[in-house]
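hey m, so remember when u said the tokens were messed up on ur end? i reran from scratch. heres the input so u can diff it against urs
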Amino acid sequence: MASAGRGQASAAVEQAKQAISDALGSLADAHGPQAVADVANWLQQTLQDLPQSTPRDDGQSDLAAPFELHEIKLFLRAKLDVTALAPDESMSLPQHGQYRDMDPTTFVHVDEFLFDEDDVDALVDEGKLSRNFCLDCGSHNSAPLNFISHSCSVADLQQLYQTLGDLTGKTVLDIGSRLGPVLYTGYYCSAAARLVGVELNGHMCQLQQQIVDKFAMSKRVQIVEGDVINHADLVQGANVVVLNNVFEFFCDLEAQQRLWAFLRTCVKAGATMATIPSLEVSLAEAQVTDIDLATWVAELECSPLTPQAMADDDDGDEEGIEGFHLYRVLS
């Protein structure tokens, strides 16, 4: 069986080589050698951007992961608009903490997994999205819009899994998994035995399950619909717990306080928590005063991670971008 699998793979590789050769030949005939050179440069850059290969549970390599993740992005883009909000979903700007007194009309929700910085630039160029709003209607006095995402780019998620290290035999739990990018990236870019997403919104769960089925991830990826408070067993069994802007935009203060109290008692000692924003900020904005962070967690030395958009910004003016904060749970 293994020999047959290698033979099929070899044949597929040869077919791919021939298809690329034919395409480049047609391109050269139609548009000349410069067009071929442009494609060659793009292909070289694409290959350089691929992560290091690691084995998957089926014995294959994650070398193709970015392409499969790109296919997932295209699939989801066809199902949702640029905000990536579910049809039955409402998101409100928190009326406390750093968002107090801010104008909700100056915020734009763009899902960072579906639309990275280059995609956003393209949407702006096409007139489908604006980066600024007018302070005085009809004038040139404008200010930048505030972009909000409840997801992460592929590059930032790959960085997260690389930092987490070897997850062989371990369970990753994403609370508020929404479209599932933490799960999909973990499937292709880590050796985690189990990747579980808990999501309250039924429409989002349906989309995630469609992806899991379409890309044959069900052996390691599980989607659970419901309130995480009703799934204490999942939290208690997790080695890594991911929380990305999960509560403050969708829950009132009372619900947030209840959720944090639940997590304080359920996340097991020795587990890793990966959060955006930091636990300090989240607890402060939820007005949680009865959790002592010093006895609950210790922030890891590598934390916080630098977001890719900030790392790539030569001018260092990417304000408001925050990477994952990593914590080891002490008790």
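this time it looks ok to me. Residues 2-31 form the longest helix (30 residues). if urs says something different then somethings off w ur setup not the seq
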